[in-house]
Amino acid sequence: MTLELPKSKLAKALLTPAALVYRALVSARAKAYEAGLASINKVEVPVISVGNITVGGTGKTPVTMFLAKQLIAQGRKVGILSRGYNRQSKSEYIVASDGEKILCPVEDCGDEPYMMALEVPQAIVICGRSRSSIARLAIDKYKCDVLLLDDGFQHILLHRDINIALLDYTDDLASEQLLPAGRLREPASALARATHAIITKVPINADSKKIERIKNIVHKYSPNCLIYTCRFRLENTSLTQNKTAIAFAGIARPDQFFHDLGAPELKITLHDTLSFADHHWYDDFDIKKIQNCLEKSRTDIGLTTKKDLARLASRKSEPQVARLLEKTVGMGLEVEWIGDSLILSIK
Questions:
Q1: What is the pLDDT of residues 199-238, one digit of tens each?
Q2: Rounded to whole angstroms, what are the CA distances from 204 to 60, 201, 336, 337?
Q3: Cα(311)–Cα(317) distance, rounded to whole angstroms?
Q4: Cα separations (Å) of 14 from 7, 10, 23?
Q5: Contact by Cβ (8 Å): 62, 148
Q6: Cα(253)–Cα(171) distance, rounded to whole angstroms?
Q7: CA nearest 193: which of 219, 167, 163, 171?
Q8: Helices (H) and strands (E) in the chain — how many of each?
Q9: Alpha carbon of 8 to those of 16, 22, 175, 179, 227: distances in Å?
Q10: Does pTM top 0.85 for this prediction?
């Protein structure tokens, strides 16, 4: 989700009245479902939602892919359902992958569904505004026997059997404000819907008391919620050893990505960084800006995320983009569990 959030105390204060209005709307919506005034659709196969209560950057995509691979290894036919943020296709829905091949370009389905289709080729990946409709398609046409909702915590319209909320270790849920004054999509009380919670981005030198505070907030609203902790480890690091580099990214919270690239074990000398909006589609000006940064710094390679690389690769037939891609490495994320890993056994 592309969104500029206020950084100064004054800006947040000025937006507080709007946040109160937003809170009232969110509360009214939740109460409508609780009272049965709005119907919830239930399908005949298990539905697992992976989402959060904040805006972007908690690690939903790598966790969704981890669970998809786990379920496929158990012999399940997995359907991944996504909204497909910032996709350029205006169709009601689009099938990114049928579990055998990719069926559309990245522009039509969006970067995250396309990347999931690449990384989990056995999964059916479908994008659409109505998760209920594409759930029906995944079951009826593609015979999926388990569905994963990517970024589905707020999509109450579709019943879910397992509801996973991701919580960023670096966030302070106790003091964070609702949109547009802060990063919260919903108040912390929405965690009452969570069956599982994952505290993500936990550093090696984590404050155990802070982790306990987060767990206490979750259990305040969902006493039986199962809580796990993890961090994310960069992939493709063998390609970066002892290299000089610049890094660029169009993702939520790119500073975390740039920080991770500075880990001593990666042996990367990072000369410069360039940030773009989340899900940004790179135009000619952007390509030239990145290329100029590479040439000016005289570095060996450019580093970006796999999501960014998917967006860039859609223009690989263009000479200037092809030249940039030759020197660019896409870095993915792997889930590294701290303690027990989340293992789902679906009947």
A1: 999 999 999 999 999 999 999 999 999 999 999 999 888 8
A2: 20, 9, 11, 12
A3: 13
A4: 12, 6, 16
A5: no
A6: 12
A7: 163
A8: 10, 13
A9: 12, 20, 15, 14, 33
A10: yes
